[in-house]
Amino acid sequence: MNYQKTILKKGISATMAVMLIASNFLYINAQNDNKASNVKRMETVYANLDPTGSATEITISNWLKDSVQDKVITENTDLEDIKNMSSVSYFKTENGQLKWSDPHEDIIYQGTINKKLPVTTNIKYYIDDKEISPKDIAGKSGKVTIKIKLTNNTFIRKNVNGKFENVATPFTAIVVAGFDSEKFTNIHADESKIFSDGNNQMLMFMGFPGLKKSLNIDNSSIKQLRDINLPDEFTITADVKDFELNTIAIALTPELPDFLKDIHPLDKNAEFESDIDTLLNAQDTIKAKDKNNSIKNLLLDQNKTNDAKKLVDDLFKYYDLDTNIAKILPNYVTENNVKLYDKIKADLDDTDLKYAIDNQVLRYIPDRLTDAQIQKVKPIIKDYDELQTLDMDRFDKATDIIDKYDDMKNIIDTGSDLYDNVKNHDTELENLQKATGYTDKIFDLLDETQELSLGGISEDDINYMLKALAEKKSKEATSQFSSLFPDNPNDPLTPIQQRQLAGLLDQAIRSGQIGATTGAQLQVLVNSGHIPEPYRSQIMGQFSAVAQNKINSAISGATTDFRNVLNKYQTLKWDLEKDFSYSYKSEIRSALEYANSIMPQIITLKDEIKKNQDTMDDAVDLLKNKEDMDYYTYWLHKAKDMKKDMDDNSENIDILKDMLNQYDDPKIKYIYSQIPKLRADFDQARPILENFADELKLPIYNKSFHNSPKTVSTLVNMMDDLDSTKYIGDTLNLALSDEIVDVARQVIKLIDKTDENGDLKDIKNKLNDADDIMARKNQIITLSDAYNSFTSSDITNSTVNFIMKTDKIEVAKQKKTFVPKAQQKKSFTGWLKGIFHK
Predict the structure, then answer these.
(1) Where is the signal peptide (predicted)?
(2) Cβ distance 780 to 255 under 8 Å?
């Protein structure tokens, strides 16, 4: 901001100086032609603007200074209504030329022109943020905003560093606006100077219309340039009462601002700039060619670095290998040997070699006839000799029995069932043995029961005995209930007596032997802890009645049970006499004594079965299996037939004996023993050979196989090259050492950081932008130097300035046209004061 203010101050000072010099003479600029080289031309353009900034009248004043030295002065002009304001020199216009003859003094003349100004003005007015026309704003009050915009109309296409860009003639503008202090308060405008004499406030702005665009500052990468403010529009805000506005004056000069003149080319090092281009081009090339960052990741990615190290390690492992075998490969991988392979393959294609190799019988004969198996054959030969002595007549006896197996089938099945029964009833057998031991006691009980039944006890006898028993039990209950009460009726119940009485009452109530109402009343007495007469006797009576009922019920049940026992005994006695005889006791006792005598043998049999259960089960299963028994029958007969066949093959057995004797030869025995190993070796190699053969059928591999002589030769040559360039491997190994990799990573990260931040490109852009600014500046200077006349004068020694003012905005007052008078020669300061004088 301070830098911008300094520029503003310098610019205002420079422009004011130019304008003050011009104001001493009022009318401006003339130039001479090639015949009037001493003439100095100063041109001033006066423009009347309406309140919106549109030009309504343009008047030109020209001063041809030092013109007396020339006889004739000629210049091109666009002026109309030309008037000589200062001399009697004669002039005439012809074909767009103005010619002065025999001037005796400086020439000052003026005229009018209908031409668009190089810088146009646009002014807008707002009351309370709403746009309003100048004629409608007069007399309004509120918050006023005035926006002034200057537009440079001189842009043309110029060559800037090889490209055609829009560049305009530079203009420095001074904008001056005056405000009545009684009407305007709180005046504010950025980038302005405010002057006040108490009655009026004057705002002064400095602008550079089109200069920012010409310099392309907004798109520059140089921040210091972007921060420079080159305004071409201004905003004034104030509080107004009864709006009226004096003239807004604008002074323009095509003079270049001092700060732009101070911009000098950078002291660049061409080699440094070239290095930056080289780095940027290298980065772009690497990014374009290595889009996946493979080269960079080779060092930055530890896994890839490790892979590279592995590759170098493999190279050094190669150097440690014994590669002599590879050197003789060309002797065997030859064109002739490849042709031989093709011939063998064609011959084998006509045979089913695989079928013969996979024949299971032929394949595994050596496995089946191992040395051990062959040794076992020798005893068979001996067995054969012994079988020759076998007496087959003795086999006939066993054959006769087995042939009758079907006749004994029922006996075998029944025996099997009995075996299963005994095997599965261990506990029952043991209990049966115990039960037979109680034979005497059982019969003693039967005898006593019989005596009781025959003793003559009648029904009345039973009732009498039970009645006596009931009376006894009733007395015992009454005596027991008496202990539930204290001896003295007036004494309270003990806690134990209370609990016992409460429990008995609760049982009697729940069983229905005492009514609920009576029971509840008795419980109240028990809970009180004191039971006087007659309640004591009442409770005793209740309990006694309950007890008597239980006793009677029990006696009745016992009577019934006793009668049932006697009846069942009588029924059992009749059944036994029916099944046995009247002497059934003797018969049953005899049977039980027999059972008791054989029980030890049965138990012993059971134990033996248990110990040999698996064998017994197998034996029983075998005897019950008719299919197996038929099989034995068949083979007994078959054995007899085989014996006969063996007798008939005695000669063949002799041949087998001779073969076994040859096997005892050590050489033959060793070769035979190696057959399984050779077959295993072949089996192991067979998948490899078959896969190799199958893959060689594929066109890609078949072609490679037939090219293998050349391939092997090339590989051998490559090996020779590797051996002769081992120093390169040493260099690669050094390049991938941890120290070198760490340094390389640091360099890459530094370059990446620079690339990420855009430092190199930023430097390059700034250098380019600096060149661009200088090129634009040079074009702007050229345009500034060339712009010396608004009226198309061709006098070279010429200058031009513009002074514009707007009409006042007044309430119901007639507008006065501003026309400069030649005879007045007031200073610029005086002219400015006059503008704002009411």
Answers:
(1) 1-30
(2) no
